[in-house]
Amino acid sequence: MKSNLPSFVIDIIQKFQKANLEIYIVGGAVRDLLTKREVKDWDLTTNATPEKILELFPHAFYDNKFGTVGIPLTQEPKNPIAKQPIIEVTTFRSEEAYSDRRHPDKVIWGKTLAEDLTRRDFTINSIALSPITHNSEPITIIDPFHGQKDLKNKIIRAVGNPQERFSEDSLRMMRAVRIAAELGFTIEEKTFQAIKNNVPLIHKISAERIRDELFKLLASSFPYEGVVMLRTTGLMAEILPEVEKGFGVPQKSPGRHHVVDVGTHLLYSLRYCPSKDSLVRLAALLHDVGKPQTFRKDSKTELITFYNHEVVGGHIVKTIADRLKLSNKDKDKLFLLVRWHLFTVDERQTDSAIKRFIRNVGPENLLDILAVRTGDRLGGGATETSWRLDLFKKRLIEVQKQPFSIKDLKINGNDVMRELKIPSGPQVGKILNQLFAEVDSGALKNTKEELMKSVKELI
Ligand code: ATP
Ligand code: MG
Q: Which of 84, 89, 94, 86 is nearest to 52 (CA)?
């Protein structure tokens, strides 16, 4: 394999090598290089201790929670939170007992690369590239667990005994599914069974880490396949039991278009949601999560209804957002997308009704709620678009040109006071509100001239 590495990586590697230290590229970077994807972040491993690495790179920082040294590409700022490309270097580790299923009881530095690769999670993540002494020199691939073969066959396989590997660190279960979704891989049978057997251990992992893996899965190239894997492994029932509850809840009523159950519809909605944003995709996956609780079947007509499911769903997604420790901003948006997903698309709707909808959802979320609607429609077997939806989209744009509140009127309180020779006070607000109501209903044009004429008539 020819080296085709960016110069900043080569520089760092050479610095290690000049100091007579071992250094290898590992992890996701190798996966990306071997599958010819763009490398997102660079993971390196070395026999140097963190202290030694910090001596070589004084501007690096040490995160002792994960035993990782981050080397920023620029000298400034010396801030691990700053968004800039970072190279993460870990010292060789050896295997040690895991008690809390996340962190080794104590980190024992390993002596060899072989030892370090053994404690890594999957065969495709246990490949090392070495050594690069010059840009044009060939790279050696160290691949003791035949990760390249699994990469070729698109398989996620645990290193060593899968049962043990998942029970010592249950985050690996989420990582298996997430990486499979990113790469479009399948999980090897024994590895898959071991996840199934260890699923309840997922609760040993912090909500933040589960959330991060879930969001990476949703942002991946195969979010639908990923969510299906969450379900078949049993992880879905643990981390999103509200979605799991939808399976087996029928929706098929005489004369209605829904044919699949609620759970399947949610998965399909995610599959067809055109947005690439993980939060919008999550909203598509959750939009009907209020249905199991609101399911009613009329014994005579056999008609199935889910009255108020969007309100119930709104409450449910708030509890999900809290449980998964979403930011307040994400929680609010998820709520809005679920709470208002049932918006009416009808040409007989008044402009005021459309404005109310825009106010409820927020103008900044319109495209996203339309993406949820597209997923919902296609996931329910309808065609991509209808003339009604197209017309509605046009009206959303048109209506937004109209005033939304008295602040958008072309005259203000001062104009009213001057014209009517009245002092400031509640009467001014009342007049403006009255004018706004007329503009809102379409009876009055929002121009200074028309509004002033109207004010005069009020005397
Ligand atoms: P990405 O960077 O896309 O999240 P990655 O596989 O590089 O994927 P990192 O968290 O950067 O993930 O970890 C780098 C490498 O460290 C992994 O490829 C793997 O070899 C090892 N690793 C990470 N997490 C674990 C874990 N929980 N158990 C064992 N090895 C792990
Ligand atoms: Mg990585």
A: 89
Query: Domains in the chain: how many in total?
Result: 4
The verdict on 224 and 211 lying in the same domain is: yes
Residue 77's CATH number = 3.30.460.10
CA of 70 from ligand 2 middle (Å) equals 12
Residue 168 in contact with ligand 1 by CB distance below 6 A? no
pLDDT at position 402: 84
174 CB within 6 A, ligand 1: no
Residue whose tokens read 């390993």: 110
- Cβ of 125 less than 6 Å from ligand 1: yes
**What pLDDT is recorded for position 52?**
94
Per-residue pLDDT tens over the stretch 280-320 = 999 999 999 999 999 999 989 888 999 999 999 999 999 99
* Closest ligand to the CA of 90: 1
Q: What is the pTM of this model?
A: 0.87
pLDDT in tens, 405-425: 888 899 999 999 999 999 999
What would the DSSP string read from start to end of 320-360? HHHHTT--HHHHHHHHHHHHTTT----TT--HHHHHHHHHH
In a domain, 1, yes or no: no
